[in-house]
Write a structure and sequence with these properties.
With 177 residues, the protein is mainly α. It has two domains: 38 residues; 105 residues, Cytochrome c-like domain (Cytochrome Bc1 Complex, Chain D, domain 2), CATH 1.10.760.10. The chain has seven helices and no strands. Helix 5 crosses helix 7. The longest helix is centred in the first third of the chain and has 35 residues. Pfam families: Cytochrom_C.
Amino acid sequence: MERDMFDTMTMTKVLGAVCGTFLVFLLGKWAAEEVYHAGGHGGEEHAAGYVIEVASAGGTDEPVDEGPAFEEIYAMADAAAGESQWRNCSSCHKLEAGENSTGPSLYGVVGRNVGTEDGFGYSGSLVAVADVWTPENLNAFLENPRGYAPGTDMTYNGMRKIQDRANLIAYLDSIDN
């Protein structure tokens, strides 16, 4: 009888050790992903650490067709689709008038003068690049905030797809009537 109890306890200990090891590996994987993706925004692509310049193999000077202009895309933008893009912004911005967070309130931002949201301290680089947040200025800023306004305190890496930017700007424009 003592032998059966020993075998059961041994098996329980082995099973516990295997489960404990599996749990440590899962927690380690989770922690590593959190550290690796720290500072990113909602699944956005992370910027490269460095860029390697490569000489063009073709050597042609033909202009690259970049697709339709932003004005055309914005004219057909879907504000409802822009609401889903808003989730990336909502961690730092609010849509209520005068309610600032890490970033300024975005209520009425389309058509608003740059750097004029009451109660928010802007970095000086924003007011140097634009006077009014037109859809075109917002498009350029959302594509690459630090490239558009070097020295800005905004740490967002940018929204790559022009259609997503147009939809988001249409959504922001729709919320303030």
